[in-house]
Write a structure and sequence with these properties.
With 176 residues, this protein is mainly β. It has helices at residues 140-146, 158-164, and strands spanning 2-4, 10-12, 35-37, 44-48, 63-67, 78-84, 92-106, 112-113, 121-129, 152-156, 165-173. Strands 3, 4, 5, 6, 7, 8, 9, 10 and 11 form a 9-stranded mixed β-sheet that branches. The protein has a two-stranded antiparallel ribbon with strand order 1-2.
Length: 176
């Protein structure tokens, strides 16, 4: 059998493909977006997960694996961030965060604005979220029920965020 292709040239007829049966969806909570690592790779460290703020990626009681070489902020990625804290002997406190970047406009004298204005340069500013918001941000009651309400820090320039970020979370450590 000969038929015309979309270019008008003769072509072969397509063979009919047998119908593949649909696979029933089954929720598999053991599947993870982060790798489960039985050993700690060189150049990585662990950090204890103290709550379910980043569930289902990280769960309370687990150990996040942090790549110490990767500290450039990336949209939606989880990182370990360091803050100055004079109340602590070492002078630093650490927290897990999700980095969220947006284009904002930096005024020449400092400060950020959301809309373009004369003299303001477009720049990516980063916020460090210490929680992952619920699927529907218009439902504050759902956020309260889930316990997923938290603070955000920022805005940071890309360079400032990179200085504060200790490393990217790349997995979960489960000793083998």
């Amino acid at each position: 059998m000969t038929r015309r292709t979309s270019a008008g040239r003769p072509g072969r007829a397509l063979a009919t493909v047998p119908q593949i049966p649909a696979v029933q969806f089954e929720h598999q909570p053991e599947l993870r977006a982060l790798m489960i690592l039985p050993t700690l790779p060189p150049g990585h460290m662990t950090f204890p997960v103290k709550d379910d703020a980043f569930y289902p990626h990280l769960r309370r009681g687990e150990f996040a694996v942090v790549d110490l070489a990767d500290h450039l902020p990336a949209q939606g990625e989880l990182f370990l961030i360091a803050y100055r804290d004079p109340r602590i002997e070492c002078g630093r406190t650490f927290a897990l965060c999700q980095m969220m970047g947006r284009t904002r406009f930096r005024r020449p004298g400092g400060g950020w604005v959301q809309q373009p204005e004369a003299g303001a340069d477009p720049t990516t500013c980063w916020m460090a979220r210490h929680w992952i918001p619920p699927a529907d941000p218009r439902d504050p009651e759902a956020a309260l029920r889930s316990g997923r309400v938290g603070a955000s820090e920022g805005p940071f320039t890309t360079e400032h965020a990179a200085e504060k970020l200790v490393g990217r979370v790349v997995g979960v450590w489960e000793p083998g």
